[in-house]
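Q: For a teaching session next week I want to show students how multiple molecules come together into a single three-dimensional assembly. I've collected the sequence lines for a complex. Could you give me the predicted structure tokens for the whole thing so I can convert them for display?
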Amino acid sequence: MAHQPSILTSFYKEPGPKLDQESPFDSMMERFRFAADILQLDEGMFQYLASPVKQVIVSVPIVMDDGKIKVFEGFRVIHDNVLGPSKGGVRFAPDVHLDEVKALAAWMTWKCAVVNVPFGGAKGGIRCNPKELSKGELERLTRRYTANLLEVFGPDRDIPAPDMNTDEQVMAWIMDTYSMNSLRTETAVVTGKPIILGGSQGRKEATGRGVVTVTLAALSKMGLMPNKTTVVVQGFGNVGSVSAQLMYEQGAKVIAISDISGGYYNANGIDIPEAIKFMNDNNRSLEGYSNADPISNEDLLQLSCDVLIPAAKEDQINRHNAHKIDAKIVSEGANGPVTANADSILEDNGVMVIPDILANAGGVTVSYFEWVQDRQGYFWTEERVNRRLNRMMRSAFDNLYGVAEKHNITLRQAAYVYAIDRVAETLKLRGIYA
Ligand code: NAD
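A: Of course. Below is the structure for the complete assembly, covering every listed component.
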């Protein structure tokens, strides 16, 4: 990026020398600094927005199935609560650490601000290997973690959600533990719950649906008809398969899909409902899918197409392959699939990137709807959820498109500029409590 940041924060780990692999968090901070420069944020405000409001580390002791005590380490970071209660997932993974949780919490702040959801950003996690834990051990771990954070969590304070290796069941345990301690059922303390426990219709498909809403908006800005476009999707899990299905329903030709087993290419278009059925019947894997030719995940990214949706993992489009991307639009279903140093290469080549903090914000938007419904005690139809989701995503896209045009910057830069400005303006109105 040509634009050099003028202020640095010491709070977050400095990027250090540029290695081949760029951490998504360093990418996020680079983009944050760029936007702060455009906004000419003063140093105090910059420091405020770069510093998490609260960082909690708890030790989480549980009795294992063999009767022995084992102590795990749990984290919860609230990056910001200027716009409202903080919101963010809880992950269970062996490599969870405070720096990562801090960066992910900040990411949530910008994501909520971009789609005008009245939440701040947070993230949490427990350092553990969930594959080595029995269901009973996982339940005790979740409940003790929740109990240790009772003063942090709350429907008006901080609202957890699922993330890596946590699911509806884990959310149900958090909700129940919090409720038992509050002496009343408090469904709004957590989102991503099973529908029967106050979850929302449409939540599971929300992220992919949001990806498609903003992709269609981008196509229309380019004067392209969805039914005349070709699409490539990397990753065929929750986000990728729903995105592929909805683009297929729009009449687009999905010429390649992939998962961890490899890529599958068919120039005539893949029958997505059939591929989804194959995957569901095949233990959630595309391995052995035969109605397409095999292609490596690397080559798949370089296929000539109108829309590329990376929906697998971070760091997929980087400075080594960015110049080979042959798509008009890259719509970031995953978090951080394009590194910061690939941004300018794509920009120079005229590729429009719809940034993750916009493209995959459908999930947090429907989490917000879930929270609203729980607080109302009145539940919406799936049709109403989808309609409101489409409206919010479309309006967020149009808004950022306008910001990008105004400053002559990319959509990603516009997303950070808008989000940071929105939080900073709100903070100015609220003032600093003393
Ligand atoms: P998932 O586990 O359901 O699916 C991931 C898919 O990617 C699987 O098909 C897996 O096989 C594939 N994959 C993994 N490594 C790959 C590789 N090297 N090459 C090709 N494919 C590979 O996960 P998900 O929920 O769909 O999430 C995908 C991404 O979207 C993640 O970055 C996640 O953080 C992000 N995201 C998800 C949500 C959500 O609501 N699920 C919301 C926001 C962001």
